Amino acid sequence: MGTANQKEFINRIKMALGKPFAESRQKADLFNSEMSAESRAILEHIKNRNAAERKKLLETLIEAAGPINLQVISCDDISAVTGAIAGLVRAKDPEWGDQKSVVAWAHPLVERLNLPAALSEQKVPMFVTGSKSTADEDLRQQVIDAYIGITSADFCMADTATLVMRARPGQARSVSLVPAIHIAVIKLDQIIADLKELFALLKWDPHERREGLTNCLTFVSGPSKTADIEATMVHGAHGPREVHLFVISA
Amino acid sequence: MTKITTENYVAEARKAIKNQVLQRALADLQNRFGRGTAECYRQLPEGPDLRLKAHEIRMKTIENLDVVLETLAANILKNGGHVFFAKDSRAAVDYCLEVARRHQVRRVVKGKSMVSEEIDLNAALMDAGIEVSETDLGEYIIQLAGETPSHIIAPAIHKTRNDVGSLFAAKLDIPYEDDPPKLTWIARKALRQKFLAADMGTSGCNIACAETGHITTVSNEGNIRMSTTLPKVHMAFMGMERVAARLEDHDILLRLLCRGAAAQNMATYVSYIGGPRQADQVDGPQEFHLVILDNGRSRILADAEFREMLCCIRCAACLNVCPVYAKIGGHSYGYAYTGPVGAVVTPLLVGINRAKDLCLGETLCGACQEACAVNIDLPRMLLALRAKLAEGDPAWGVKPADRKEKLLWQAWSMMIRKRTVYDFVLRLAALVQKLMPQRDGMIRRLPPPVSGWTQGRDLRPLAKESFIQRWRKGF
Amino acid sequence: MSNEQPVTLFIQCIVDTHYPAVAEAMVRVLRRLGISLTCPGDQTCCGQPAFNSGYRRQARTAAQHFIEVFENSEIIVCPSGSCVNMVRHHYAELFQNDSQWLARARNLARRTYEFSEYLVDVLRVEALGARFDGRVTYHDSCHLLRGIGVRQQPRTLLQHVSGMDFIEMRDSDYCCGFGGTFSVKYPDISDAMVTDKAKNIMATKADAVVGCDMGCLMNIRGKLSRLGSDIKVMHLAQILAC
Ligand code: SF4
User: Fold this and answer.
1) What are phi and psi of B199, to 5 degrees?
2) B246 — contact with chain A (CB < 8 Å)?
3) Among A69, B19, B196, B248, which one is most buried in terms of CB atoms within 10 A?
4) Under CATH, to which class is C3-120 assigned?
5) Is A4 contained in some domain?
6) Per the structure, how many domains does chain A have?
7) Distance (Å, rounded) from C-alpha C232 to C-alpha C242?
8) Which residue range(s) make up the domain with A202?
């Protein structure tokens, strides 16, 4: 592997580092193929997290969400979430045009919300980005037309109120990005503490590492914002102007 | 190919100092970000010294850059991406153009990236008849105005809401509006069309991760996600040093990057991108290209004195505390990189003689190092550059900047070796200073080459007797 | 207290030639503490101006002279943070390829102190019985603050001065724009910086601005004078000698 210009390029670097012939000096400790004690401890800690600690993480998350205007709603059961989302769909106006439509991930947790039924009352169609039967172009248009995008997430880092989403079939990246409002639904046990825990999981947890980061791992911390005009903070620069995060504790 | 205007440092600085709007904006920027970042560092569980650890991580990566880059490239290829190693701007731009041609690209949306400024990608694309849209709101404003960015993170700080309002009215053919939220949404609407219509999106890379084979993009607006999600081709550019070996390294680096850049604990959006959409995925670009750029960096790498500069993660924290930047703004630096980071890296990239004012026109106050997310000793390197300018240095092709000045220092060094000579010169100077216009015991005007002092200040004259003389007489 | 080690005075060239009264004040303060003083008559300049301008060979000449002059001194005290920073940190850089001089420079660096640092950290003195009736603000000189890490010591000493009303100015740790030859080579930028500094000082309505480095203070004084302000500009030693 590696083209001619790559060889030349890398050789220039080797020369600059004064190691034209020696191979990979510190390769061994540059990367770690063995889990460190620290990572092991982190994984243990995550696994053994009890209910009280989980509650604590949720509190941290809510605290971190405030300053970045991320709305966190903690619900005891799934039907409460469905109701709340239906309420949002009713209350919010579409950004472009007056046609309301919603787009959602193909995701077990989102499916359990039973939203199409809940929304049919309002005559708001919901499209799901999972079905391969829909042509990519149509799907793209559905995302563009929707004013609300509904996703779940792989994790949520409490420390910074950050949703962590992998790219998967049926779970389009654009759902959390293109519609004006992003709604995410997660379960309490998906909350982790911080980046350290996330990276330990992604790199060392036997289950998580199989999938790894995927081709696009996205962190979202609250709604899109900018302060480029006279340092005035404005939400909704290019991404969603609102993000609502539902945490199901049961 | 890039327009380099480092020679205009003094003239541009003078202009900036006179620009009241800019002065206020710069002061405000430093007030918020400079102080905010310092506070963020203090609140880190590990404290501000985490920056030292980050420096270590960066340095280790840089010292193994060959291995790290090969690992990164191999992993990206494995994920179906393309990697191109570009030795200079020309190569990088040509590669991008070739890919654009292959895909019959007509419209490009750009996520903010310093490297694309460095290689002047816009000009090249536009020459090829391709429409280029900057998508970061600040960059978009600058592009509409036909200007260049004045700050790495806040490119349009020199524009008021009225400026932006008039600009949008003229260029977008809409009624005048000067409310920042409304202006933002006007841009949102205009750019949304660009995102949807673009065939190629470009981005930079904040810190790649070699072992997983991902680049990272960081933004608050979401423009980079748009640019890298919607168009069918994603072309990313990174300076060859912008990589970390391990995912664990990203914990520290990412936290410091967000704090340094905008006094945030985490930016709104961070994406790890490692390849094009997979066969069963429904969106994302069909092709992913990463261009890794040398463009003079290997020369910096080769010089132990300056290697440290490659630790830089372009967070711009140093700009937000630099008292010189606060006065002269970004345009004075005459190149993509501004502020303290520009003062060191620009001379190294474009020529030390050519950019001499950037490294001489600083006070060495040290605020930049204290603010630097990775604790780079910028003042040390400013001094090292000055040493090259004083003596010349064939290895870097530097010629002594000022031979007359050198003679003066030569004479000075003879004088300070002997107190008798020193005292004699003092007596002479005391005689000469009698000729200077004075008021209230202060000298009002000095002759060249020291006339600069009295341009805006008075000078306390030499004392009748130096302290040493008094001491000798028995103080 | 008279059993303190004798101190050798390292007089910054600007103090020596423009502000001898500062050195005299320092002498008074130290003598009051019962410290015996010497002051080598052949000292000139530590070499910092040449070093900062990139003229390392010339700076080396100055550094060698300095080392020869001060080598036999036990404790060296200087009324300037930037000169101490030069000796403490930059001499090592100047002699990095000359192990003999490097060793001599290192040896000397360990025994060189800035005035306020010496009082507070070495002598452990905070109250000197000084009195100053008026409002005072303090400017943090860059090399003093970020070079040798002195922030609190001068403030502590000032807080023990009776009759004084101490007030912090805005951005006290922002550079005043002196920067040695920078002030002459880039007068526009330097002037803009010192103008800000002067404004921040004037905004405190202080009677005096105090600092620990006459380089900065000469710059600040020059600007205040040009602006027609009569705020006093004083070295810390001058206040402590009152
Ligand atoms: S030099 Fe340091 S502070 Fe400045 S941009 Fe680079 S990493 Fe950030």
Assistant:
1) -100, -20
2) yes
3) B248
4) alpha beta
5) no
6) 1
7) 14
8) 37-248
Interface predicted TM-score (ipTM): 0.96
Question: pLDDT at residue C3 above 60?
Answer: no
- Residue B255 per-residue DSSP state: H
- CATH architecture for segment(s) B37-298: 3-Layer(aba) Sandwich (3.40)
Here the tokens at position B97 are 């153009």
Q: Starting at the edge strand that comes first in sequence, how are the strands of the sheet with C75-78 ordered?
A: C37-38, C7-9, C75-78, C112-114
In what helix (H) or strand (E) does residue C194 lie, and over which residues does it extend? helix C187-203
* DSSP per residue, B126-145: HHTT-EEEE-SHHHHHHHHH
What residues does each domain of chain B span?
37-298, 406-473
Of B135, B222, B301, the CB nearest to A13: B301
Regarding the beta carbon of B374 and ligand 1, being less than 6 Å apart is answered yes
- Determine, yes or no, domain membership for A213: yes
- Residue B372 CA: nearest ligand 1 atom is 3
For B232-312, where are the alpha helices, taking DSSP H only?
Answer: 247-262, 297-302
Q: Has residue A166 been placed in a domain? A: yes
Q: What count of residues does chain C have?
A: 242
Q: Looking at residue C5, what is its pLDDT?
A: 87
Residue B132 forms beta bridges with which residues?
Answer: B108
Q: In sequence order, what are the residues at sequence separation of 6 or more whose Cβ sits closer than 8 angstroms to the Cβ of residue A64?
A: A158, A159, A160, A161, B265
Please work out whether the CB of residue B291 comes within 6 Å of at least one atom of ligand 1.
no
Is residue A43 within 8 A of residue A197, CB to CB? The reply is no
Provide block-wise average pLDDT over 10 residues at a time, chain B (475 residues).
Answer: 84 96 93 95 97 98 97 97 97 97 97 92 96 96 88 84 96 95 96 97 98 97 97 98 97 98 97 94 95 98 97 97 96 94 97 97 97 98 98 96 95 96 95 90 91 94 95 90
Counting as contact any 3 or more CB pairs under 8 A, the partners of B are A, C
Instruction: Write the CB contacts of B98 (distance below 8 Å, at least 6 apart in sequence).
Output: none
- Which of A147, A165, A143, A134 has its CA nearest to residue B196? A143
Nearest CB to A17; choose among B66, B154, B188: B66
Contacts of A226 in chain B (CB under 8 A): 137-138, 184, 220-221
Find out whether the beta carbon of B317 lies less than 6 Å from any atom of ligand 1: yes
| Ligand 1, atom nearest to B339 Cα | 4
Give residue B314 CA to ligand 1 midpoint distance, Å.
5
Nearest CA to ligand 1 atom 3: B372
Helix axes B378-391, C56-70, angle to 10 degrees: 110
* Pair type for strands A216-220 and B269-273: antiparallel
Hey, is the C-beta of B214 within 8 angstroms of any chain A C-beta?
yes
Decide whether any atom of ligand 1 lies within 6 Å of the B34 Cβ.
no
The neighbour count for residue B415, using CB atoms within 10 Å, is 18
Give me the residue from A160, A170, A199 closest to B248, CB to CB.
Answer: A199
| Residue A25 binned pLDDT confidence (cut-offs 50, 70, 90) | low
Q: How high is the pLDDT of residue C51?
A: 97
Which CATH number is A203's domain given? 3.40.50.10420
Nearest Cα to Cα of residue B307 among B36, B63, B55, B40: B63
| Assigned fold of C128-240 | Rossmann fold (3.40.50)
Q: Using CA atoms, how far apart are residues A197 and A211, in angstroms rounded to an integer?
A: 16
pLDDT of residue B1: 39
Number of Cβ within 10 Å of residue B122's Cβ equals: 18
d(CA B35, CA B149): 23
| Contact yes or no for C53 and B409 at CB 8 A | yes
So where are chain C's domains? 3-120, 128-240
Whether C2 shows a pLDDT value over 60: the answer reads: no
Do B294 and A227 lie within an 8 Å CB cutoff? no
User: Quick check: is A78 in a domain?
Assistant: yes
Is the Cβ–Cβ distance between B386 and B359 less than 8 Å?
yes
User: pLDDT of B8-36, one tens digit each?
Assistant: 999 999 999 999 999 999 999 999 999 99
